[in-house]
Amino acid sequence: MTNISKEKIENLKSKVKGQIVLPSDSSYDEVRQIWNAMIDRRPALIVRCAEADDVPQAIAFARENGLEISIRGAGHNIAGNALCDNGVVIDFSTMKNVRVDAEKKRAYVEPGATLADFDEAAQSHGLATPVGINSTTGVAGLTVGGGFGWLTRKYGMTVDNLVSVDVVTADGKRIRASENENTDLFWAIRGGGGNFAIVTQFEFKLHELGPEILAGLIVFPFDEAKQVLTQYREFVKSAPEELNVWAIMRKAPPLPFLPGDVHGKEVVVLVTFYIGDAAQGRKLIEPLLRFGAPHGEHIGAQPYTQWQKAFDPLLTPGARNYWKSHNFTELSDGALNSMIEFAGKLPSPQCEIFIGLIAGAANRVPADAMAYRHRDAKFVLNVHGRWDEGTDDEPCIAWARAFFQASAPYASEGAYVNFMTEEESDRVAAAYGANYDRLAQIKKEYDPDNLFHLNQNIKPSL
Ligand SMILES: Cc1cc2nc3c(=O)[nH]c(=O)nc-3n(C[C@H](O)[C@H](O)[C@H](O)COP(=O)(O)OP(=O)(O)OC[C@H]3O[C@@H](n4cnc5c(N)ncnc54)[C@H](O)[C@@H]3O)c2cc1C
To answer: Is residue 92's pLDDT more than 80?
Structure first.
């Protein structure tokens, strides 16, 4: 463990408003926990920022003491890059404020805010912007990697709705980036991950929504998987962008609307989400019920903020997680067959394969408009390897890797950086494709020493 003198720590404490947490503090183990229980790292100190001005101080301290820096939003990233061993964690968990200007339809979001914090503040004015599907995820990490969720078909990726960012650069300067100021930096931050600067405030545009939406699940027997998924693939081609439908294959949780003998058995689930008139939504969803003989369905009008938490019970922190992901422009028979084959041999009750539909507004943005470039991707596939005991690491990781390989021939180019695991640094260049060279140039300008390297790292160009 790095030895830093008491005097240096006291000096830092006198300069920051936030709290400094050290390995000797009783809260240390709690504060260094993140969502994925596989990640166990011991930072030299954690700076729990209270205001943006704490960030340059933390950066200067790390530089002066030759320490690595990691950045923590809400700590959900599967690779665990929010934490470092023996370095400085710049931790935003206590900077969660969300301010909404309802008239201008803008939200100003601090980097520790979760999706729940954001959704609740925006929905109190009947507004929203696309974010992810698990309310405890951080706005910060989700946004800098791209961000998609139920509203993406209609309103694009989270980054497509980003208006400006206030940041601290690697040399400790506080600046703003937008379409009008520091435009290269703004281009890079929209998808380039935590590589370029530390964001202290995000400004988003908001859309009118709800407060009620129509959403819920249709659960089919697993032996109907092929017929359900082939009809799903056809259905979504012409479905309006107000309607989103994702497909999940997993063991059925003990949901009250399912017969008891289905609980724990493999099932295919169509997850539906509709914004607009509920009666019209029911009509649109109705054909899905005839894709097979469902075990049960549970679809109803409900507050958007409630739906945004619907999957939280399946995605609690504290489990061990290993994920793999591909993008798809189409779901070929080969892709579906490999999904069904591997869903038929799930190594734990919590593992699942899901297909997220993002076709729509996100596809209409040019691929070079910003760092995030997968504008041809219509589906994002995620293999959730998830289990509780360390003794299950080997079979669960092996299953996720084998499925990833088997489905790779049917995937489109690129990868979604927010779903990449620690050892996938070889996929970073592919994730950015033709945008990579420009990113490397911008990295050289803003972070030539690669101070911000605990991420899906883009190296400064030579
Ligand atoms: C259960 C679960 C559900 C998910 N669902 C979705 C989904 O529906 N849609 C989707 O798009 N993604 C989803 N994700 C992926 C999610 O977008 C990423 O894990 C994201 O990195 C989480 O952000 P965070 O702030 O919580 O993570 P953290 O681990 O805190 O941060 C991740 C990385 O983001 C960067 N970062 C964080 N804060 C800042 C900052 N202030 N400035 C600059 N860089 C920063 C850093 O590089 C950091 O290492 C999900 C993840 C989980 C675990």
So the answer is: yes
Atom of ligand 1 nearest to the CA of 74: 26
Closest CA to 299 of 291, 309, 310: 310
Q: Using CA atoms, how far apart are residues 80 and 165, in angstroms rounded to an integer?
A: 24
Q: Which of 24, 4, 95 is closest to 54 using CA atoms? A: 95
* pTM of the complete model: 0.97
Percentage of residues in the chain having pLDDT higher than 70: 100
Instruction: For residue 114, give the ligand 1 atom closest to its CA.
Output: 26
pLDDT at site 450:
97
Burial readout 63-93 (b: 16 or more C-beta within 10 A, e: otherwise): bebebbbbbbbbbbbbbbbbbbeebbbbbbb
* 65: amino acid identity, one letter: N
Residue 320: φ, ψ to 5°: -90, 135
Helix, strand or coil for residue 269? strand
| Ligand 1 atom index nearest CA of 419 | 15
**CA gap 155, 105 in Å, rounded:** 14
- Check pocket membership of 76 for ligand 1, CB cut-off 6 A: yes
pLDDT digits (tens, 9 = 90+) for 182-194: 999 999 999 999 9
Report the residue count for the chain.
462
**Can you name the residues that pair with 380 across neighbouring β-strands?**
327, 356
Which residue shows structure tokens 């929504």?
209
Query: 191 and 115 in contact (C-beta within 8 Å)?
Result: no
Residue closest to 143 by CA, chosen among 73, 51, 245, 241: 73
CB-based contacts of 418: which residues, under 8 Å, 6+ apart? 77, 141, 142, 145, 146, 147
Looking only at the bridges linking them, the beta strands covering 207-208 and 127-128 are antiparallel
User: Atom 53, ligand 1: which residue's CA is nearest?
Assistant: 76
Name the H helices within 287-411. Answer: 304-307, 333-343, 393-407
CB 167 within 8 A of CB 200: yes
CA angle 351/327/119 to nearest 5° reads: 70
